[in-house]
Amino acid sequence: MKKLIIVACFIFLAACQQNNEESLLRERQSDSDLKYVTDSDPVEKENLTTQQVARRLAKTAVEVPDVHDATAIVLGNYVAVGIDVDKDLDRSRVGVIKYSVAEALKHDPYGKQALVIADADGVERLRGVGQKISEGHPIEAMTDELSQIVARYMPEGPINERPQTNTNQESIPSEDHKQLDQIEKEQSKER
């Protein structure tokens, strides 16, 4: 009987001790200055149709100076915006305008990764795709046409290629590398 009472007291004390640790842990967590953030740039996206998003992005592009007209195509996560600028502008000025439009679109949650096209042929092709979409043509055909348009203006090659980690090793000729290794060995022997 004595053993039973001792075991019961031991279990009771152990259970109370665990409860105190849990409350202490909760107290430490609530007093902590650390904040756990899951999304550091929360952006509320409205539920808009792709045509509404396209109109909104085209309107944003037209607000940039020197842009006379704009058209936008939204298919899934892909966005292409065609801008109409004065044909007499030189290429560098057109590049500045394209960059300004891209910057303006970055502030819109739907236009963050938009491709901006200022070529007259590309803009007309985008308008044609937009017209076909509004007429109800199959999306598969429009996706193919849009991919051809985008492929024409996007640079080829790996987009997210990581640089090599140790390029200095490769820039040293092999004879110099052997000489450096020899110097390292001599210096390590001196110590």
Automatic annotation (TrEMBL):
Residues 162-172 have a biased composition (Polar residues). Residues 155-191 are annotated as: Disordered. The lineage of its organism: Bacteria, Bacillati, Bacillota, Bacilli, Bacillales. Keywords: Lipoprotein. It comes from the Bacteria. The keyword Ligase does not apply. The keyword Lipoprotein applies. Pfam families: Spore_YhcN_YlaJ. InterPro entries: Spore_lipoprot_YhcN/YlaJ, Spore_lipoprot_YhcN/YlaJ-like. This is YhcN/YlaJ family sporulation lipoprotein. One of its GO terms (biological process) is sporulation resulting in formation of a cellular spore. Residues 174-191 have a biased composition (Basic and acidic residues).
